[in-house]
Amino acid sequence: TTKWSEDRFNEIIKETSTFIKKVGYNPKAVAFVPISGWHGDNMLEESPVMPWFKGWTKETKGGVVKGKTLLDAIDAIEPPVRPSDKPLRLPLQDVYKIGGIGTVPVGRVETGIIKAGMIVTFAPSNVTTEVKSVEMHHV
Questions:
Q1: DSSP labels for 30-76?
Q2: What's the average pLDDT block by block, 10 residues per block, for the chain (139 residues)?
Q3: CATH architecture, range 82-139
Q4: Which of 47, 61, 65, 138 is most solvent-facing, going by the fewest CB within 10 Å?
Q5: pTM of the entire structure?
Q6: Which parts of the sequence belong to the Translation elongation factor EFTu-like domain (predicted)?
Q7: Domain residue limits, the chain
Q8: Quick check: bond before 124 cis, omega within 30?
Q9: Would strands 102-107 and 92-98 be described as parallel, antiparallel, or unpaired?
Q10: d(CA 73, CA 126)
Protein backbone atom coordinates (compact mmCIF):
# COMPACT_ATOMS: atom_id res chain seq x y z
CA THR A 1 0.00 0.00 0.00
CA THR A 2 1.13 3.56 -0.62
CA LYS A 3 -0.60 5.07 2.46
CA TRP A 4 -1.16 8.03 0.13
CA SER A 5 2.59 8.66 -0.05
CA GLU A 6 3.72 10.14 -3.36
CA ASP A 7 7.21 8.68 -2.88
CA ARG A 8 5.82 5.18 -2.30
CA PHE A 9 3.48 5.51 -5.29
CA ASN A 10 6.41 6.53 -7.55
CA GLU A 11 8.47 3.61 -6.21
CA ILE A 12 5.65 1.20 -7.10
CA ILE A 13 5.37 2.73 -10.59
CA LYS A 14 9.13 2.25 -11.10
CA GLU A 15 9.09 -1.40 -9.98
CA THR A 16 5.94 -2.23 -11.92
CA SER A 17 7.27 -0.51 -15.06
CA THR A 18 10.39 -2.68 -14.94
CA PHE A 19 8.23 -5.81 -14.79
CA ILE A 20 5.90 -4.57 -17.55
CA LYS A 21 8.93 -3.96 -19.79
CA LYS A 22 10.33 -7.44 -19.01
CA VAL A 23 7.14 -9.15 -20.17
CA GLY A 24 7.11 -7.20 -23.44
CA TYR A 25 4.77 -4.27 -22.86
CA ASN A 26 5.34 -0.52 -22.97
CA PRO A 27 4.96 1.07 -19.50
CA LYS A 28 4.10 4.39 -21.19
CA ALA A 29 0.92 2.72 -22.47
CA VAL A 30 -0.23 1.95 -18.89
CA ALA A 31 -2.24 4.29 -16.67
CA PHE A 32 -0.93 4.14 -13.09
CA VAL A 33 -3.74 5.21 -10.75
CA PRO A 34 -3.55 5.32 -6.94
CA ILE A 35 -6.87 4.06 -5.55
CA SER A 36 -8.47 2.65 -2.46
CA GLY A 37 -11.13 0.11 -3.29
CA TRP A 38 -11.87 -0.14 0.42
CA HIS A 39 -12.69 3.56 0.77
CA GLY A 40 -13.59 4.26 -2.87
CA ASP A 41 -10.84 6.86 -3.21
CA ASN A 42 -9.99 7.91 -6.77
CA MET A 43 -12.16 5.24 -8.33
CA LEU A 44 -15.05 7.27 -9.76
CA GLU A 45 -14.20 10.76 -8.52
CA GLU A 46 -10.96 12.54 -7.62
CA SER A 47 -9.87 11.87 -4.06
CA PRO A 48 -9.09 14.66 -1.57
CA VAL A 49 -6.56 12.47 0.32
CA MET A 50 -3.92 12.73 -2.42
CA PRO A 51 -3.57 16.34 -3.54
CA TRP A 52 -0.12 15.47 -4.96
CA PHE A 53 -1.67 13.23 -7.66
CA LYS A 54 -2.12 15.42 -10.74
CA GLY A 55 -3.43 12.59 -12.90
CA TRP A 56 -2.14 9.84 -15.18
CA THR A 57 -0.96 9.97 -18.79
CA LYS A 58 -0.62 7.10 -21.23
CA GLU A 59 0.35 6.73 -24.86
CA THR A 60 -2.10 5.13 -27.28
CA LYS A 61 -2.19 4.63 -31.04
CA GLY A 62 -4.52 7.63 -31.18
CA GLY A 63 -2.18 9.88 -29.17
CA VAL A 64 -1.72 10.77 -25.52
CA VAL A 65 -4.64 10.20 -23.14
CA LYS A 66 -4.95 11.79 -19.69
CA GLY A 67 -7.21 11.25 -16.71
CA LYS A 68 -7.39 11.22 -12.93
CA THR A 69 -9.53 8.29 -11.79
CA LEU A 70 -9.70 4.54 -12.31
CA LEU A 71 -12.93 5.05 -14.28
CA ASP A 72 -11.09 7.46 -16.62
CA ALA A 73 -8.39 4.81 -17.12
CA ILE A 74 -10.96 2.11 -17.89
CA ASP A 75 -12.76 4.42 -20.32
CA ALA A 76 -9.42 5.08 -22.07
CA ILE A 77 -8.83 1.40 -22.90
CA GLU A 78 -9.00 0.95 -26.66
CA PRO A 79 -10.90 -2.16 -27.74
CA PRO A 80 -8.83 -4.53 -29.86
CA VAL A 81 -9.30 -4.26 -33.61
CA ARG A 82 -10.59 -7.47 -35.15
CA PRO A 83 -8.71 -8.25 -38.37
CA SER A 84 -11.84 -8.96 -40.43
CA ASP A 85 -9.97 -8.25 -43.69
CA LYS A 86 -7.81 -11.37 -43.25
CA PRO A 87 -8.71 -14.99 -44.12
CA LEU A 88 -11.05 -16.85 -41.77
CA ARG A 89 -9.27 -18.47 -38.84
CA LEU A 90 -11.53 -20.16 -36.30
CA PRO A 91 -9.75 -22.53 -33.90
CA LEU A 92 -12.23 -25.19 -32.79
CA GLN A 93 -12.89 -25.45 -29.08
CA ASP A 94 -15.34 -28.33 -29.32
CA VAL A 95 -17.65 -30.21 -31.71
CA TYR A 96 -21.16 -31.31 -30.72
CA LYS A 97 -23.40 -33.78 -32.52
CA ILE A 98 -26.96 -32.69 -31.79
CA GLY A 99 -29.89 -34.87 -32.90
CA GLY A 100 -32.16 -33.06 -35.37
CA ILE A 101 -29.60 -30.28 -35.82
CA GLY A 102 -26.40 -32.00 -36.94
CA THR A 103 -22.75 -31.35 -36.23
CA VAL A 104 -22.08 -28.08 -34.40
CA PRO A 105 -18.47 -26.86 -34.31
CA VAL A 106 -17.73 -24.35 -31.54
CA GLY A 107 -14.91 -21.83 -31.54
CA ARG A 108 -13.91 -18.20 -31.65
CA VAL A 109 -13.37 -16.26 -34.88
CA GLU A 110 -9.82 -14.90 -34.55
CA THR A 111 -9.57 -13.37 -38.03
CA GLY A 112 -11.89 -12.98 -40.99
CA ILE A 113 -15.67 -13.26 -41.11
CA ILE A 114 -18.03 -16.24 -41.07
CA LYS A 115 -21.56 -16.12 -42.49
CA ALA A 116 -24.32 -18.59 -43.27
CA GLY A 117 -23.91 -19.98 -46.77
CA MET A 118 -20.11 -19.88 -46.77
CA ILE A 119 -18.16 -22.96 -47.81
CA VAL A 120 -15.42 -23.67 -45.26
CA THR A 121 -12.66 -26.26 -45.01
CA PHE A 122 -11.40 -27.56 -41.68
CA ALA A 123 -7.71 -28.34 -41.31
CA PRO A 124 -5.92 -30.67 -40.91
CA SER A 125 -8.69 -33.16 -41.84
CA ASN A 126 -9.52 -31.24 -45.05
CA VAL A 127 -13.28 -31.61 -44.43
CA THR A 128 -15.32 -29.12 -46.50
CA THR A 129 -18.89 -28.11 -45.65
CA GLU A 130 -21.40 -25.28 -45.90
CA VAL A 131 -22.12 -23.04 -42.91
CA LYS A 132 -25.87 -23.38 -42.23
CA SER A 133 -26.11 -20.83 -39.41
CA VAL A 134 -23.95 -18.81 -37.03
CA GLU A 135 -24.73 -18.13 -33.38
CA MET A 136 -22.80 -15.87 -31.03
CA HIS A 137 -22.48 -16.31 -27.31
CA HIS A 138 -20.53 -13.73 -25.31
CA VAL A 139 -18.97 -15.15 -22.19
A1: S-----BTTTTBTTSS--TT-TT---EEEEETTEEEEESSHHHHHHT
A2: 85 97 96 93 94 95 94 94 92 93 91 95 92 85
A3: Beta Barrel (2.40)
A4: 138
A5: 0.66
A6: 102-138
A7: 6-75, 82-139
A8: yes
A9: antiparallel
A10: 46
